[in-house]
């Protein structure tokens, strides 16, 4: 059986495991106050060219989104998101659990446009009953999106501009950030993201870590006592150094980008094969998530040999599905999949 | 200046004021445990032909929706609503404040269809990632809707059937229920509503009371300690008897329906005049809220003589507006408005 | 039967009812944006000698506390209160429903001391694990307290000083504020309260209004969009002018103080009689709530002729009970009660 | 420097690390649906002699408490705890963040007594204003407690009896459960805990795992869709198998108990030395947390050579401190500490 379901099916990159093993018997203070976390913070600030940024380490993506969003919004504020956004669809209401509405706007291949945000804000401010409505308080985007697509530098700048025009902090969910940065299509570097966004997170879980996300805050938009806030959300890891060890490994000698590029190369092989065989793409293939449309026979046949996500039934004979590569994908498996197609 | 902004611009029907005055110096226990509330409960149960119903008295509409919805849902559940629903648009995130998502579905003139609910549930249950999504836990409708439109008996029955098929309690926001019941188009009686819905509220604020809503629960779908739940939401009126006095007055000698019919007759006069003058309706005029489309000149001219709600700018020269009649609307004012049109 | 259970057993003072009746047919905009609310705000600012204060009108006490506290605290902050405080005991967890802990400190006849607050803060700041604890974010007191007792000017000033030393806004629950201001023991005027507290509310429900509380914010400690915040809590009255009419009546020609003094005079008659007959007081009788200790026989006898609150069983033969007078208490009833004692 | 601050200063037991390494490249489905979690569930059910128990895997203690408590309580219910309980003191308001009050009762060496619970419930039910109060909905205990003390079988049975008499599910926080089970004083086995408690968790983070807690539910007291509930709390680990691998290792060949006994033996050496040197104990030393009282000079001297928790300043010259041993404590370090005493 070939596995292309997701990018969190294996453990961690061997270099990460090795460092965890090497440091296993050291005694360190808890709750991300240790020296490994300190070093990882420095490496991340440097990679972002943002020496003043605050960096917090968390365990998973939904948790990070919940912590980040609720650290910015006032009680009566909501977060604008593409309606396809992870916070709006696949986090079981974690944002609402903190008391806030997700204000879903129509998306374009999973992306939110500056125009959509600008129009929503103009309409909101002109509305006679605005005081009776949830006030937009920040904007959430994911990069790559839930459809594997990417913002261009121009698109991100436009979003950032409209957000700042209306006083809305811009937050980027970077669960798969490495795969976005490594994509050949991308003209966005980490320093651009740090410059245009007020907050973002660098995903570890899906990019070589056992688990972990690094939340980066580049402007003073969040609560002051973030550690207490994180503790209250049940999100403060006791052995915080596990996160420090992992992120300092990933951000040493370019490992994070190196393994991201591998996943993108694997995705490229698959994309090329799909294109040459005339498969229909459900979203433009830009990163490590490839969405295609399968007819019933092909779907049934592929299911016998590979695991992947069934996304959406489009009509009686057509279904969209997702194949995902990762740092752990082996070229042999990609070739085996290609020969099945 | 003529006032057609809303149905909560005046105080209470004179009969209600009179009863409040007559009972003003009596000493009664608090928190809706008094005999007036007891009597009002009996009158409402009788009017609904539902002798077993639980009845709770609250102060306002948003508060009642918040109390009702959060008394039914489990933490991870959300409430399905037309995306135009009051809970989704004009309650400042009161539902989200209790931790729950509003799952907005496309509406038809403000109404939710049984088909839309059925399709949403079928898709949800077929979704591979349903466990990571907000689970639909109940259905919210308003009757009349935010556009003044009405469910037919057939439509309500279909909704009720699909809800019960999927184990979803059906809740009706009856902020303007009297005006719905009194509408000539309506084939729905209070007893039908009590039979098809698991919970609903009978609006007082907009239908002759100073303030107050009566929440009726016809099946055991809500929390057991409702008084504690209401207290926790800051919604338990100390001098609860004020609600009992008002509702017992409104439900004695058919007053609630009598004053509702007056508002509907006033709306009918206005509708007829609008039709005969060729005005475009933004939604079918069925109750006491009349939505029409005005060009800029007419809008500017009317604004000099009357107050009303500006709903939505449709294009450069067209705006939808809302005129509302109520128990307090005087025929002379309607005629004066008509002569302005 | 004589009624001394509470100060919310009757309707409103006749002057209030009269104004509600006079204004009943006027058409006004909703949600406390009308001219009556405007006038009431001005009268209250003047009475507080605080021309810059923000004033918001709400319906009840628990609701006002919930709105006020959640408008000040950050998510990870809690509110310090005497452990006997209303927010800690008798609001069914309304503060916790907004996500905040009530940090209960030992009380002295229902009062919180500056020393207790100072010690708590010093300990908190010295605690190695403070970051893992709820951060104190404001201080709640009630005046009169739940035991009918009063802060002196000196005590309030000391509390205010310690609060401001530690950056904690001071909030006073004034459900029975009139009765406190009118007490012969009191050296605190409304302007002192406005000066020492950052927020407080002037109770209407228990002091002559049908319902209603006026939340006064004297320093910029609360959320900016308070109307949206109030709406989200289900606490924004549609016919807001009812609150404006009531408070403008109560604050015209000294009515609020006049009716408060009446209640205090009635309580004084009762207190004198209790003292002369040697009854044991459970708390110092300072305002309109009189707590005494009864043996079983006397308790049983009095219950046959009067209603009052049974507070706490102290031992096999002794129970503390509460008698309450109000603006509506008639001297004849007090005398009748006295002759029963 | 010697480290006795806590039991989460090192990584994981070598056997756990080895299994993580062995399984690192396997592809498994996410979110604790994998076979390793399945096996771990079976091993835990067997160890508890509770074949029907539900078992969920979470990352940390505060998170587990938050998920567990909010899965049982209705909105208006609170959780009874010793006022020294972890949920009441050191979780930054995580329970309140889910909308629930912690009802703190006086403790005895960190333990809650059946009498205290019984008296609280009797008083609550007899209280005239019980409907206005937070309703007790469950009972939280920790074992070992925050003071390292233990419930006896008799004490736990009495608590369980009073809980069930009043319909309150009993929940045990077992962050350090292994150290409790391994204590020579203890007459409680895992099967007793599973029998007397409705829910409890088996701590991994402090007992040999990198991280992880196993929540065991022995009676149907919790929400049905627990995975969705966990996801909503941001607590569902993507690579859930990491938890399955760890717990299946800990529950194979008695490893969990073996490493727990080691920590207890280390604590015993230290306790004997402290006793023989006449040190004052702040709480009875029963498990791996040893609380003693130090004078200023000894405190200053020890701080130069060892790290440990400073608990509470008792008076000008006396401070309580805590020394903690764990699975990772080396006998040489204990001896070095002893020679410092």
From TrEMBL, chains A, B, C, D:
Coiled coil region boundaries: none
Cross-referenced SUPFAM superfamilies: PLP-dependent transferases
Superkingdom of the source species: Bacteria
Co-factor(s): pyridoxal 5'-phosphate
GO molecular function, one term: transaminase activity
Residue ranges of the TM segments: none
Family statement drawn from the similarity comment of this UniProt entry: Belongs to the threonine aldolase family.
Name this protein carries in UniProt: Aminotransferase class V-fold PLP-dependent enzyme
Organism listed in the record: Candidatus Cryptobacteroides avicola
Upper lineage: Bacteria, Pseudomonadati, Bacteroidota, Bacteroidia, Bacteroidales
């Amino acid at each position: 059986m070939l596995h292309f379901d997701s990018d969190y099916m294996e453990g961690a990159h061997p270099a990460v495991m090795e460092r965890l093993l090497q440091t296993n018997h050291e005694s360190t203070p808890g709750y991300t106050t240790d020296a490994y976390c300190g070093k990882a913070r420095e490496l991340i600030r440097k990679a972002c060219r943002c020496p003043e940024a605050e960096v917090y380490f968390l365990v998973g993506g939904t948790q990070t989104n919940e912590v980040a969003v609720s650290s910015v919004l006032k009680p009566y504020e909501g977060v604008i998101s593409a309606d396809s956004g992870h916070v709006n669809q696949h986090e079981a209401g974690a944002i609402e659990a903190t008391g806030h509405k997700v204000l879903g706007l129509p998306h374009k291949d999973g992306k939110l446009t500056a125009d959509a945000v600008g129009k929503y804000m103009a309409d909101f401010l002109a509305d006679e009953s605005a005081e009776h409505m949830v006030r937009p308080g920040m904007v959430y985007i994911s990069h790559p999106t839930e459809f594997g697509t990417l913002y261009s530098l121009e698109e991100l700048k436009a979003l950032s501009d409209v957000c700042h025009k209306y006083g809305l902090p811009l937050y980027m969910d970077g669960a798969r950030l490495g795969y976005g940065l490594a994509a050949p299509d991308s003209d966005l570097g980490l320093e651009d993201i740090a410059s245009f966004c007020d907050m973002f997170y660098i995903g570890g879980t899906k990019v070589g870590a056992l688990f972990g996300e690094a939340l980066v805050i580049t402007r003073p938009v969040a609560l002051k006592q973030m550690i207490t806030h994180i503790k209250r959300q049940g999100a403060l890891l006791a052995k915080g150094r596990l996160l420090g060890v992992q992120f300092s490994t990933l951000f040493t000698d370019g490992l994070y980008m190196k393994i991201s590029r591998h996943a993108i190369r694997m995705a490229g092989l698959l994309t090329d094969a799909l294109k040459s065989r005339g498969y229909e793409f459900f979203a433009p293939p830009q990163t490590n998530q490839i969405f295609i449309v399968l007819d019933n026979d092909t779907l049934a046949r592929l299911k016998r040999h590979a695991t992947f996500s069934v996304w959406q039934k489009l009509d009686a004979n057509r279904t969209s599905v997702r194949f995902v590569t990762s740092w752990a994908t082996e070229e042999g498996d990609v070739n085996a999949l290609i020969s099945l197609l």
